[in-house]
Amino acid sequence: MNKKIAVIKGDGIGPEIVTEAMKVLDKVAAKFGHTFEYDQLLLGGCSIDAYGEPLTDETIARCKASDAVLMGSIGGDTNTSPWYKLPANLRPEAGLLKIRKELGLFANLRPCLLYPQLSGACPLKEEISAKGFDMLIMRELTGGLYFGARKTEEVDGVMTAVDTLSYNENEIRRIAIKAFEVAMKRRKKVTSVDKANVLDSSRLWRKVVNEVSKDYPEVTLEHMLVDNSAMQLVRDPAQFDVMVTENMFGDILSDEASMITGSIGMLPSASMNETKLGLYEPSGGSAPDIAGQNKANPIATILSAAMMLRYSFDMTEEADAVEAAVEKALDDGLRTGDIMAEGCVKLSCSEMGTAIADRI
Ligand code: NAD
Question: Less Cβ around it within 10 Å: N or C end of the chain?
Answer without folding.
Answer: N
